[in-house]
Hints:
Number of helices of chain A: 11
Distance between the termini of chain B: 23 Å
Number of domains of chain A: 1
Number of domains of chain B: 2
CATH superfamily of the largest domain in chain B: P-loop containing nucleotide triphosphate hydrolases
Order of helices and strands of chain B: EEEHEEHEHHHEHEHEEHEHEEHEHH
Largest sheet of chain B: 6 strands, mixed
Structural class of chain A: mainly alpha
Oligomer: heterodimer
Helix content of chain B: 25-40%
Number of strands of chain B: 14
Strand order of the largest sheet of chain B: 6-7-8-3-9-10
CATH class of the largest domain in chain B: Alpha Beta
Distance between the termini of chain A: 32 Å
Number of helices of chain B: 12
Amino acid sequence: MTAxxxxxxxxxxxxxxxxGVSDTLxxxxxxxxxxxxxPAFIFFSVIQPVIFVLLFRFxxxxxxxxxxxxxxxxxxxPGIIAxxxxxxxxxxxxxxxQELKKGTIDRLKSMPIAxxxxxxxxxxxxxxxxxxxxxxMVAVGYAVGFxxxxxxxxxxxxxxxxTVFGVAIACISAFTGLxxxxxxxxxxxxxxxxxxxxxxSSAFVPIATMPGWLQAFANxxxxxxxxxxxxxxxxxxxxxxxLWPNLWRSIIWLVGxxxxxxxxxxRAYRRAS
Amino acid sequence: xxxxxxxxEQPAILVEGLTKxxxxxxxxxxxxxxxxxxxxxGVLGPNGAGKTTAVRILTTLLLPDGGRAVVEGHDVVxxxxxxxxxxxxxxxxxxxxxxxxxxxxxxxxxxxxHLSRPETRRRAAELLEQFGLADAADRTAKTYSGGMQRRLxxxxxxxxxxxxxxxxxxxxxxxxxxxxGMWDIIRSLVAEGTTLLLTTQYxxxxxxxxxxxxxxxxxxxxxxxxxxxxxxxxxxxxIEFTVPDRSRVADAVAAIKPIGEGEPHADPETGVxxxxxxxxxxxxxxxxxxxxxxxxxxxxxxALRRPSLDDVFLxxxxxxxxxxxxxxxRRGSRGRRRADDTDTARTAS
Lengths: 273, 349
């Protein structure tokens, strides 16, 4: 019986990086195949933000006064896209908790694969899913009257910022999924932090309409910076001056989230059993 | 198999004084094991005995508190990566992604073992063929029966051609027929020279598959030997029956004591009385009927059966295999299931 084993076998750094990438891609493919087989997963992760778009555009929108060029729909869409990216990470946390419980993560850990691959594979697949969801939301926005007013480049930049923001939130979700390790608990916990974080921000209403104590939170909420920057990218014009102050604050926040939560997620993965 | 046991050859698995605690729970309290190359060790014990903890340490998923474990010459703590390249782990269908086909599942594992694309395809097809899944290869695993999912899971653990295979309760929850199918496959792997460590709750399974058996209880090895040796300690086959009139249980014990080769055991609550009768089988059965009749004790369900894990535990520890189960419901269901277990054992042997 031949075996692909050997004690004197210590791969160099180059090989390790190559295999890390190849293992990540194999696990990414696994997730993408699942969504290809069961498109309902994607469908249901789009349905909720679409309902929010319709609700805010046609039900609440008329009562929310904004000075944004193009009216409330243009104010709304960057906010809802950022929220969609954040909510997409519910899936990250839930799937990791499921795989932990079922023993899939154990099995993968007992195989000679890159130690990082389970996490990077999950995040890569979820980033692709998130990106597709964001594009669908842009299309939905166009159908209900949203328009990019600032040209193609800044529009792409807005989509990129939303995606990077989503990946940062996904790192937090990955940590919670692995640390809590129970699908239902993870889902409830996700609601507890993701709802206030995305709603108490500039995503849906101008912060000035909130009571003072809530403004204090909203004004320092990273979601506010990200959404303001996205809005400025999408619409330009009178919003141009708010771009940089919000963008650099967003970048600092996102870097901070990565610096804190990537090691936490890795640690939770190592300890998970 | 003997060609693997040359003088001086290192054992495939060597465990010395392994300990592990979770808080106040001592899961392993100093376990020693040695598994020669190409042989099968059956690790037998009830839920919570420490079987799974031992497997998790040997497969590098858990760090031990003390002691030493070496797999294929590699220390599981210091050379974990080398250990992972030598082993396969299978058991409870955990590697299977149900939304993917059997073939896709194996091909992704192949890519994770860094086989080339053509080699991945070849290996997947080969394993699907070998495990009787060729016809179902392109159906999603969700449509597979429990037995097929276990076989696919086992196939997944073999993609990298491991020299040492760990099977954690590979047939728990399978119906008798699927269980027999699994046993055939496991036997064929052993014939190819794979070293196997198998954990199970079923004595007949260890009996069928293992060269050596260790019995674990409360984190300690309480018995080791071949299945013959263990069964002799139990007293071979067992006669068992229920006395509906609980007040006569003691009389029943006295009546059958001369027939048995060991002390009869009785449960005053359920009225179940059992005794080991060695290899005298049906002769002993007739004697038991006569003895009970002579003593005018009514009984039902009188039957001869192979010794079970419960019997081994009763003999070795004085308590049943599931007596310490915190989950009362499961303990109850085991009692009710006893008759089915007996049937399974007969079909299997």
